[in-house]
């Protein structure tokens, strides 16, 4: 099915050799879903598949690259600090901080970490957004950041709404791929991992099922809000179902299909706007 889509994409392009790349404004593909559902693996496999599409897609990168921990922290400071001089960026950080504090996180330290990490994400998007003919794959992005806040929130009624903040950041150049699977599938996969990087791995056994239920509910609610809250022509959300028997390659293949279709939709919209 994917090869058929690629042929459709190629057939829709102008015949000149200079115009073989898709005319599309997509810059970011962000995976969204429960911990353990396969976002990081799917990101890597999708990047490799998109690279094999050659000039149709352009350059493909994984977010943050392969920087060491220290270099990554230096880079994070380096992209946030200059933007603090920008009034629009400061306004976004204030809105994020208000949302985080009003949601009621576990502690002031947790809230400060979330605000910093989210500010870095926004700075990263703004830093990479001007690139041309480049798609950046993110396994931990804006939606996942909002999900993390909602998972630990004590209050859902806040003066700032996460969808309004997301819209202010801008989604016109993004495609969100929701890896949609049962909580039990994600939980079992996460338990087989050797690390403990996810907060879902560090919860006490007596709260485990409650936390997974809350995590699953937050994911589904966010997907529903995003689906109904955005204009239909934005095409920002695509879903890929992940069942217990699905291999990482199967999931990446389905993700490739929805991303290529999103690229084709944007290509047609860009072509219509240019006429």
Descriptive labels:
5-stranded parallel sheet; 275 residues; alpha/beta
Determine the mean pLDDT: 83
Distance between the termini: 30 Å
- Anisotropy-based shape: globular
**What share of residues is helical?**
40-55%
Extended strand count = 5
* Low-confidence regions: 15-20
Major sheet: 5 strands, parallel
Strands in their spatial order, largest beta sheet:
2-3-1-4-5
Percent strand equals 5-15%
**Count of helix runs:** 10
Sketch the topology as an H/E string, one letter per element.
HEHEHHHEHHEHHEH
- Which structural category do the helix and sheet elements fall into? alpha/beta
Radius of gyration: 19 Å
What does the model show?
This protein has 275 residues and is of the alpha/beta class. It has helices at residues 2-12, 39-51, 69-80, 87-103, 108-128, 142-151, 162-169, 183-191, 208-229, 248-274; strands at 28-32, 59-62, 134-138, 174-180, 237-241. Helix 1 (2-12) packs parallel to helix 10 (248-274). The radius of gyration is 19 Å and the shape is globular. The model is unreliable at 15-20 (pLDDT under 50).
């Amino acid at each position: 099915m994917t090869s058929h889509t690629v042929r459709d994409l190629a057939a829709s392009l102008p015949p000149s050799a200079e115009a073989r790349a898709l005319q599309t404004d997509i810059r970011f593909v962000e995976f969204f879903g429960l911990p353990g559902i396969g976002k990081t693996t799917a990101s890597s496999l999708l990047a490799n598949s998109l690279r094999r599409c050659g000039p149709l897609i352009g350059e493909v990168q994984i977010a943050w690259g392969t920087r060491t921990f220290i270099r990554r922290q230096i880079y994070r400071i380096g992209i946030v600090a200059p933007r603090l001089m920008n009034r629009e960026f400061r306004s976004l950080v204030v809105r994020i901080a208000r949302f985080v504090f009003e949601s009621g996180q576990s502690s002031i330290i947790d809230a400060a970490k979330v605000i910093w990490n989210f500010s870095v994400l926004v700075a990263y998007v703004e830093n990479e957004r001007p690139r041309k003919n480049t798609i950046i794959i993110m396994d931990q992005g804006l939606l996942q950041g909002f999900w993390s806040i909602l998972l630990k929130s004590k209050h859902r009624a806040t003066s700032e709404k996460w969808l309004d903040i997301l819209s202010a950041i801008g989604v016109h150049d993004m495609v969100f791929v929701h890896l949609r699977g049962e909580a039990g599938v994600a939980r079992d996969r996460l338990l087989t991992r050797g690390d403990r990087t996810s907060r879902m791995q560090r919860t006490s056994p007596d709260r485990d099922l409650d936390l997974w239920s809350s995590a699953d509910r937050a994911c589904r609610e966010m997907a529903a809000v995003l689906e109904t809250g955005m204009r239909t022509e934005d095409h920002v959300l695509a879903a890929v179902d992940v069942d217990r028997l699905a291999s990482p390659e199967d999931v990446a293949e389905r993700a490739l299909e929805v991303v290529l279709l999103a690229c084709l939709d944007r290509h047609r919209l860009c072509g219509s706007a240019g006429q």
